Amino acid sequence: MSYNYSNPVVSSLERNSEVLAGTSGQLMTLEGTAKKAVMLIALCLITGFMMYFKAEGMVADMIVNGGSGGGLYGITTMALIVGAVLGLVGTFFPKSAKVVAPIYSIAEGIFLGGVTAVFESRYPGVGFAALSATVVTALSMFIAFSTGLIAATPFLKKFLMMAGIAIILTYIINLVMHLCGGSGIETIQVENHSLLSYGVQTLICAVASLFLIWDFDNIANSHGRVGKEYEMAYAMGLLMTLVWMYLEFLKLFAKINSDN
């Protein structure tokens, strides 16, 4: 079995001779992909901070006036849905990434800003800790990949694929349990402070972080092989991993904060 990429977008690109030839006459470069990734990350951060400060006031109003928070939860949920849909569109139709990626970044920024405001109201300081951990880990993974300290070997890719599927299935089961009125899977709840829960959440953070190695490997291997118009698709994939990392770090630090 070939483990070229966990995201269908890349395998479809590599099977398409038109993509490999570069329909624009230009080929993808590391510099071009990096610039687009920085643009998407900046867009997500700016939107996220704007939403955070807006949501912070809404959360404070909920606490003081006893509001339901329907407005905040409605905006955050809508942003989550829009981000998920655009993520799927960008994945299966990579040519659309040029249009959907910036909108995806904005949607994710709104979602992350709202979620962070809620977490901050309950566990002060976790937002900054999660953001710092994401930045430091991303830089560490990039250095580790660039120096060859961690390579995207077939074994690592196979492990990440299986772990990723297991995590997705766990979250789906947990969501279904919540929708059915249950408390969800106790081990992955923020308020669960068992050693197993800490171990599972730490492992999920590690898996999310290692997916960056896979992303970097795909970008490096596609340099000069696919059309320049697909740089945005790779940049969008990188942002998806960073968003996932941030959310997992946010939950980990919330767990630690609630245990003190």
In brief:
It contains nine helices and no strands. By secondary structure, it is mostly helical.
Shape: globular
Low-pLDDT parts are 1-9
Indicate the structural class: mainly alpha
Radius of gyration: 19 Å
Number of helices: 9
What proportion of the residues is helical, as a percent range? over 70%
Average pLDDT for all residues:
88
Could you name the key traits of this structure?
mainly alpha, disordered N terminus
Overview of the structural elements:
- With 260 residues, the protein is mainly alpha-helical.
- It has one domain.
- Helix content is 77%, strand content 0%.
- The model is unreliable at 1-9 (pLDDT under 50).
How are the SSEs ordered, and which strands pair?
Elements: H1 8-15, H2 17-21, H3 30-65, H4 70-92, H5 97-122, H6 126-146, H7 154-179, H8 195-222, H9 231-258
